[in-house]
Structure formats: structure tokens, C-alpha cells
Amino acid sequence: MSSLRRPPGPRGRTLLGVTPLTSGNSLRSLTEWSETYGDIYHCRFLRYHVYFLNRPEYIEQMLVAQNSKFIKDARCRPTASSLAMVC
After folding, report:
1. Which of 40, 38, 44, 37 lies closest to 15 in space, CA to CA?
2. Residue of 55, 51, 50 lying closest to 39 (CA atoms)
3. Is 52 a member of any domain?
4. What residues make up the domain containing 68?
5. What are 21-51's pLDDT values in tens digits?
6. Closest residue by Cα to residue 18 from 52, 50, 40, 61
7. Distances, alpha carbon 38 to alpha carbons 2, 34, 51, 71, 75, in Å
8. Which of 8, 9, 65, 82 is the most buried (most CB within 10 A)?
């Protein structure tokens, strides 16, 4: 079985994955991760893999120009606060 290669990102310390997303300081965590991991990064939260795109042109490519290449499942929804895809 081959493993899916994911972008770099913070590693969770618990079975929950990355927990700063639930804290009151999530904006600071997201900003630090963007500075550390770049324009595209990934983290795990519970059983979901969360992808972050930090450039408007990447978001446009994913949502408009190449939208047919991305999974559209009821489980995968963009979050309003960060435009991250939760899958």
C-alpha cells in the first residue's frame, strides 16, 4: 500500500492531532504555521486532514480554474474562516 505524500505542516502531539485550531489563539497559530511551512501546508485534526492555501491565486486555481480536479464530497467542505479544505 502506498502512502499519500502530503505537504509539510505541524505535527499533532495527541491522538486529536493539532489542537491549537480549537484554542482562542488560532489566528496566531495559523500565522506562525504560514511563516514556517509556506504557502501550502497540512495538519491533522481528529480524523481529518486539513489543507491550508495562503495565496489568493492558489485558492482561485482550486475553487475556479481547476475545480474539476478536486474531490467534492459531503465530508470535504471549505471552512469560512480560513478557506481550508477539511477532508
Report:
1. 44
2. 55
3. yes
4. 20-86
5. 666 777 888 888 899 999 999 888 777 788 8
6. 50
7. 26, 5, 12, 23, 26
8. 9
Instruction: Answer whether residue 14 is part of any domain.
Output: no
User: CA 4, CA 35: separation in Å to the nearest integer?
Assistant: 24
Q: How many folded domains does the chain comprise?
A: 1
pLDDT tens digits for 55-78?
Answer: 999 888 888 888 777 766 655 555
Write the CB contacts of 82 (distance below 8 Å, at least 6 apart in sequence): 30, 52
Q: Give me the pLDDT at residue 1, please.
A: 46
Is residue 69 situated within a structural domain? yes
In angstroms, the CA 72 to CA 87 distance is 10
